[in-house]
Design a protein that fits this description.
This is FAD-dependent monooxygenase. Keywords: FAD, Flavoprotein, Monooxygenase, Oxidoreductase. By secondary structure, the chain is α/β, with parallel strands linked by helices. The protein contains 14 helices and 25 strands. The strands form 4 sheets. Strands 1, 2, 8, 9, 10, 11, 17 and 18 form an 8-stranded mixed sheet that branches. The chain has an 8-stranded mixed sheet with strand order 6-5-13-14-15-12-16-19. It has a 6-stranded mixed sheet with strand order 21-20-25-24-22-23.
Amino acid sequence: MDDVLIVGAGPTGLVLALWLKKQGIRFRIIDKSAGPGETSRAMAVQARTLELYRQLDLADAVVAAGHRNPNINLWARGKRRAHVSFADAGTDVTPYPFVLVYPQDLHERLLAERLQVLGVEVERRTELVSFEDKGDHVVARLRTPDGGEQNHEARYLAGCDGARSPIRHALGIEFEGGTYKQIFYVADVALNGLEPADEVHIALDTSDFVAVLSYGGDRNRLIGTVKDERADRPETLTFEDVGHQAIEGLGIEVRKVHWFSTYRVHHRVTGSFRRGHVFLVGDAAHVHSPAGGQGMNTGILDAINLAWKLAMVVKGQAPDSLLDSYDLERRAFARKLVDTTDRLFTFVTADGSFADFVRTRIAPVVASAAYRIESVREFMFRMISQTTLSYQESPLSEGKAGSIEGGDRLPWARSAASDNYAPLADIGWQIHVYGAARSDLRSWCERRRVPLHTFAWRPEHKKAGLQKNALYLLRPDTWVALAEPQQSTATLDRYFSARGLAPGEVL
């Protein structure tokens, strides 16, 4: 019997497989399609995703394959109204102060190849027909490539099977939300006249909207909306049919359309990310507008959140109740994200003369002025990059030291002497001390087999909100679990015993 059956080999399922493999968990990953996707809607890989990709030595490969877009240009009525520099805003926040444009189909292929190197093949043309939760494991009925069927047993089932998730439907879990009235279009094009050519451009007009993302050479992605009567016949639309007012406002000429597609967008969050031994992950659990390029990244972070918890439970280092925190942590974030992207998308696409005036005249001026304020620049970057994501309300989060609370992302604080993110390449519990570690803490870490990393106190640490000589216990997904100002080993013992956790040991 396998530990986990993963259904769906998009980025979410592949990342879950990679993280489970790194932790020594037995699994199968199946997908009913014949191969990876050939086209792509998701384009952006955010900084927080890249930070976590360091755990599998993936970050450098993804950055090298993608195209860095360090700036965003906001256009309205044919003029550039604002210029937002991520390089300036994120340079003290993350090693990755940019939006990486990397089409999902290419991203999937890279992840699948990395899984292949580790000796795991995605089982293509293999479909989940049905499943039954037996209380301590799941029995799944699979249809194999030859048309036959077989039963497969696994302790847990992970539904990474997309927005229409058959697994979610079979569980009968509600998927609350709605559908935007607009039709989205995406197009891969060759074009002339885009300046600067390696930056993101967003154009707002009275009746049109388009975003242009460059991903190297003469490859560009257009994302726009269709709002008028043409939206009633999306299946017959071509690129010539969609509004070109915003495109022309950018001063560009589309020379060739390599690929064009239309689709509707929903904004929904499922009522539960967990039901017994079955989990919903990625689009199966939440979908939202493409505003801000958050969707694929959110699914990837779902998978990483779930993977370390599954590994601890399977290895006997934690009770099954640890898995409930996956639902609590990720559903809360998904709801907040859907609300945020919904408000942003509604603003960008609102109809009416007053809405047009605010969107094309007022908003660009306000955005340009606000961005001159350093704190505003950093806040905007943190929101888009998902580096603000916190689990402070989680039962796994405790304490405060400096301005850092349990549940926060560990701040990046690189100096000439050290990079405090280097130890985070390991998937496992670890403790950081910025200053000097007490001898009893060192003994505790040796006894409990929890790595201890100390960093000579630097001004960069204080600037990042860390407290000198405090103890920061980090979860395997690198968020702060416990922030303890006094380096109390008694507090560490209470933290683990209260939750039934035993890192480095088997219960």
